[in-house]
Specification:
Elements: E1 4-6, H1 16-20, E2 26-28, E3 40-42, H2 53-57, E4 63-65
Antiparallel strand pairs: 1-4, 2-3
């Protein structure tokens, strides 16, 4: 399962996610999305630590981060 998902058709190309990614994993796409913006794309998936700073900065909530939940045994 992937750690992240960018919903490209929600992205309005503001670039905040790219600016705040500590590992510089994201970049802006050269192609346009369905609503006419250059969406963010994950350029370096292997570098992504799923820190979720990109998702926190996204004003359109177009970025989803998935993490495994550790369950403690009782």
């Amino acid at each position: 399962m992937e750690k992240w998902r960018i919903i490209e058709d929600l992205c309005k190309g503001c670039g905040l996610c790219v600016e705040f990614c500590p590992k510089q994993c994201l970049k802006m796409s050269d192609s346009l999305n369905r609503i006419g913006y250059h969406p963010a794309i994950l350029d370096k998936a292997e570098e992504c630590t799923a820190c979720a700073l990109c998702a926190q900065m996204c004003p359109e909530t177009a970025i989803l981060i998935y993490r495994k939940v550790k369950v403690k045994s009782a």
